[in-house]
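ligand=iron/sulfur cluster
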Amino acid sequence: MIPAAPTSLLRERLQALGFDDVRVAAVGPGPLAPLRAWLEAGQHADMHWMERTADRRLDPTLVLPGARSIILLGVNYWSEALRRPQPASGPAPLWARYALHADYHDTIKPGLVAAGRVLEELAGVTAADYRYYVDTGPVLERSWAARAGLGFTGKNAMLISRRHGNWLFLAAILTRVELAPDAPVRTRHRQQDVGLLCGRCTRCLDACPTAAFAAPGVVDARRCVSYQTIENKGVIPRALRAGIGARIYGCDVCLEVCPWNRFAQAGRQLLLSARYDVAALSLAEILALTPERFAEVFRRTPIKRLKLAGLLRNACIVAGNSGDRTLLPALVALATAAALPLVRAHAVWAVFRLGGGAALQDAARSETDPVVRAEYEAEARAGG
Ligand code: SF4
Ligand code: SF4
């Protein structure tokens, strides 16, 4: 039997490590996120690991037998500097604000290691009695965080904290230690009620540029700009490209319109490392990136996982939406000479969007890749 540990002292010690909010949920039955319905509707797109880990996500004792508590840790990444990141010149690509930091998996992990040591000290346990995760484990952090009262689940499907708004990285420590649980935001409601404190507001649902909400609190990843620009490794559907607008990596629209953010305070950033320099890159600079320059600029950022081809794909869409014909030479070069068909295909789309299709007549005749040919054929059907 593992002894109970004092939750208040634990909270104090973990906050001192840099976690801006620390709350506890008791492991037990109860409604969590409607994960199964979401998976059955195919709204997870090709994120098949969600299916493979569904049982473990729904039952933490399958991840850590004997688990009694989940410690939810919030790291606030909001700062005034993130209000309007703009490049010095040229069209401004927009980045999800979280991405303008060194990879949070790397910077938060040392805090989790230290948090584990604190738990060992206060509860007299060993490293075998807990597991920690930041975003990549089979733990429904947002749902448990709502249960622990760290915030509530908004109609935008995000956790909304009254202190930090939407701008939180969430980490979790699953442990066999019994800790006094915190209450959800409103105990008279079921903690999983979507939009508990949204009232009649529907701003996030109305503002979504690609109509990705299947229902309040339910995002169809197949239509979501975040999924398409980050998780999708292939061709982005033509029907969604205009809605992507200037968003080159991720999408903050349903977060930034949320009125709860007006209460958000800047975070202490003890477990983060800002990379606002990324937001200073112009679209022209991104379209001209070489593999070496990509590796140099995006090293240790979450964006590096997209790889150069994924970033160029997204940059082509942003360029096509920009109306800036000074980008045409760079786009024509990518459409005709980029090694990867994925990049050529999106460059072709962008060139036609900017009215430069005549420059690709020869390339269209000689293109043999089916993915790129499909773009030319779609343009021909559209009379481009
Ligand atoms: S992240 Fe963007 S595209 Fe996705 S649901 Fe929110 S507003 Fe819509
Ligand atoms: S924008 Fe409005 S509806 Fe959407 S999560 Fe925020 S409060 Fe709720």
